[in-house]
Design a protein that fits this description.
The structure holds two protein chains of two kinds. By secondary structure, chain A is α+β, with helices and mostly antiparallel strands. Chain A has two helices and eleven strands. Chain A folds into two domains: 39 residues, no CATH class; 117 residues, no CATH class. By secondary structure, chain B is mainly alpha-helical. Chain B has three domains: 121 residues, no CATH class; 164 residues, no CATH class; 66 residues, Alpha-Beta Plaits. Chain B is built from 18 helices and five strands. In chain B, the strands form two sheets. Chain B has a two-stranded parallel sheet. Chain B has a two-stranded antiparallel sheet with strand order 4-5. The radius of gyration of chain B is 21 Å and the shape is globular. Classes of the chains: A alpha+beta, B mainly alpha. The interface between A and B is large, with 54 and 55 residues. Strand 1 of chain A pairs parallel with strand 2 of chain B, so a sheet runs across the interface.
Chain lengths: 163, 390
């Protein structure tokens, strides 16, 4: 038998062996390998990593690191703030938030917290610092300007003003 | 030539004995039991019945493949069942979990967008440059309807691709079955003359979508061109752009998946449009198996060329004794050849050397993957229906 044929049959045999390993071993190993590549979901979707937390009366506000979209991405830069838990929020939230942690208020955020989780949310944001953009009666227009309820948090994304 | 092709009949291969066919089916029967009878999974009655039916279905189809020597004819039953039952199970799940097929932005932010394999080629360049996955799912368990996450789907894709290469499109893809079913409805094609240049369509779409996904940092194919959004899920339309996107999905589905397969008897979405299919073609080069034409036996009647659902055979390729790299190893050409000149083949061996051995080795690998992946999907869809009655 020619060497090429031996190699061919060997490859076919290995393929069948690999088949047997797929559900019990390979699939899991490949998934682990993929997960260990250090990849992360694009921050436009995930909102970026949490930078710090502000404690308020019975609830907290998680402030995320600002997200700057890539080259031609059709979103503006934004910062995400999470109010949680929803059950501890008052019926109407209106407060100033120090987003960048410099001790000065940067934005005033106000929104209603309806009891029905399916009720659409609306938010008003007044920029007290030139770095942030004001928003009026915004719901969920774009990834960079929205208010949504996700599980036990109300997420507000405030667009950053371009310098 | 074409007239002659129409009057030729495939040479009937003498059937294997029932005993020998059963013996050859035994490994797949054991495999099916392993896949469906996992005692660690706690199934409700409808799921148990669905698993049993699916296991018997998959074993019976393999037995018939062994008995008759025909591959495509029996594989098609599996593939159409997969194509029909995947949307049944999936749509039921999304309707139960969120009450709509539209993915609200909240779910995307939460990383709960179900991840299928179609955007995999679109994610590679953005991930290579920025380590970002431009898909609103989750990497680890907790994301998607299955709760499996992108890593699990990527792992499954890579493992199955190692085994079957482009055969994914015939033994694992849960979308292509709808087209294959539609292509089987009419006995003859209404549209017979198709410009062969359409064959480059998937590569053009792949190139455009990869570049667009890199530029815009979004899964461009999922956002704008995936026909199967019409039978799975779509971005909930919040504005005019969303309405346009959903309109495109419906038009592409109606055209490429329903109407054109009916008229041409081809898998038109796969053959002329699917970027994932083009991407999978690359893995035909790494697969140990392919389909060859024994030129000593070939007339050539071009029945194989007519039968190929993805136009992966041309006069030139037949003269060279091989299929194009887009061949998805469905077996249509092998089944239809009146001279048994189109054969399954293990790379490196002589073309005419024991083609049935090559077929068996390929089918064991491919059918095992079909049972593991497609079979599970079929059982899920079937359980959804049976849940009403059982």
């Amino acid at each position: 038998m020619k060497l090429r044929a031996i190699l061919g049959y060997s490859a076919a045999g290995v393929t069948i062996l690999v088949t047997l390993l797929v559900p019990f071993f390979l699939m899991g190993q490949f998934a682990k390998g993929f997960a260990s590549l250090g990849l992360h979901v694009d921050e436009v979707y995930s909102g970026g990593p949490k930078a710090r937390t502000i404690q308020s009366a019975g609830y907290s506000i998680d402030i995320h690191r600002p997200v700057f979209p890539h080259m031609l991405q059709t979103e503006k830069p934004f910062v995400q703030l999470d109010w949680r838990p929803v059950s501890a929020l008052p019926a109407h939230v209106s407060e100033t938030v120090d987003v960048d942690g410099d001790g000065q208020p940067d934005i005033r955020v106000s929104f209603d917290v309806p009891e029905n989780p399916k009720t659409p949310l609306r938010v008003n944001v007044v920029a007290l610092n030139w770095k942030y953009q004001s928003m009026e009666n915004v719901s969920k227009e774009k990834y960079s300007r929205l208010i949504v309820r996700v599980d036990d948090a109300i997420i507000v994304r405030v667009p950053l003003a371009r310098p | 030539m074409a007239t002659k092709a129409r009057v030729l009949k495939p040479a009937a291969m003498p059937p294997r004995s029932i005993g020998r066919s059963l013996l050859l089916t035994l490994p797949i029967a054991v495999w099916s039991l392993l896949m469906f009878a996992n005692p660690q999974r706690h199934l409700i009655r409808s799921e148990k019945v669905a698993s049993l039916i699916t296991a018997v279905f998959m074993i019976a189809l393999f037995f018939l493949m062994m008995r008759t020597g025909s591959t495509y004819r029996w594989r098609r039953f599996f593939f159409v069942a997969l194509g029909v039952l995947f949307p049944v199970g999936f749509i039921h799940t999304v309707m139960v979990m969120r009450g709509t097929m539209g993915i609200p932005i909240e779910e995307m932010i939460a990383g709960r967008t179900p991840f299928c394999y179609l955007p995999i080629p679109l994610l590679i360049l953005p991930a290579a440059f920025t380590k970002s996955l431009v898909f609103p799912g989750s990497l680890l368990p907790g994301g998607g309807m299955s709760g499996a996450g992108m890593a699990a789907m990527a792992g499954m894709w890579l493992a199955i691709t190692l085994v079957v290469g482009k055969g994914w499109c015939s033994y694992a893809c849960f979308f292509g079955g709808i087209e294959e079913g539609m292509a089987a409805v009419r006995p003859r094609a209404k549209l017979r003359k198709i410009d062969p240049r359409w064959r480059y369509g998937p590569w053009a779409v792949l190139l455009a979508m990869v570049l667009l996904s890199l530029a815009l940092f979004e899964p461009a194919y999922c956002m704008w061109l995936c026909p199967f959004k019409a039978v799975s899920e779509y971005v909930a339309a919040r504005n005019t752009v969303g309405m346009v996107q959903n309109g495109i999905f419906v038009v592409l589905f109606a055209g490429l998946v329903i109407a054109l397969p009916l008229l041409t008897k081809k898998r038109t979405q796969c053959a002329f449009f699917c970027p994932f299919g083009a991407f999978q073609s690359i893995f035909n080069k790494t697969s140990a198996f392919d389909v060859k034409i024994d030129r000593a036996r070939c007339s050539p009647c071009v029945l194989c060329k007519t039968a190929c659902p993805t136009m992966s055979l041309t006069d030139e390729s037949i003269a060279r004794g091989e299929t194009l790299m887009s061949c998805m190893k469905c077996g249509a050409c092998v089944d239809v050849c009146p001279k048994q000149a189109v054969v399954w083949h293990i790379k490196g061996t002589e073309v005419a050397c024991k083609p049935e051995r090559a077929r068996l080795m390929f089918l064991y690998a491919a059918w095992a993957m079909a049972v593991m992946f497609g079979g599970t999907v079929i059982a899920g869809g079937l359980a959804t229906i049976l849940h009403v009655f059982v």
